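call fold target=Guanylate kinase
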Amino acid sequence: MKNGLLIFSAPSGSGKSTIVNWLMKEHPELKLAFSISCTSRAPRGTEQNGVEYFFLTPEEFKAKIEADEFLEYEEVYQDRFYGTLKSQVENQLEAGDSVVFDVDVKGGVNIKKFYGGRALSIFVQPPSVEELRRRLNGRGTDAPEVIEQRLAKANYELTFAPQFDHIVVNDKLEKAEQEVYKLVSDFLNQE
């Protein structure tokens, strides 16, 4: 089994993180490891540099942007950056891991463009926007206006789905998990 690059993107509430976490926990033989991103925000709680993130100052982050060291990055708020270093991905591949990217749709498309056939990109899609609304409401964590913002963003994100290698519709979690496992396993077993 080769190691590879696995890109997962989805609208919020589609179940992407649940599927990815299941895949990593239940299938250690795949040797999956999350890409460790950089951020310019301060560590929270027990977060450690080089474990959850690499913590950089905004100035350090901007210097790495200037030096074209990122696969993808985004400035979420002024001087609050998140991004993936090319060198970190290569280090993880050299260590024998398959690198998992759990990223937004633009980041997913950019990473796929950079790596081409070395990467497998999967878009996890809810069965419908109505079902997505039901899931977001069911979480009970967001105010109604936040849910509406997430749904508007989801409609936009869904337009990116055709740019991914595969679309997995998460209407039944176990079925979606098995479909993702087969896609990843087949990809990593290619010669």
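return ok
The radius of gyration is 17 Å. The chain has seven helices and nine strands.
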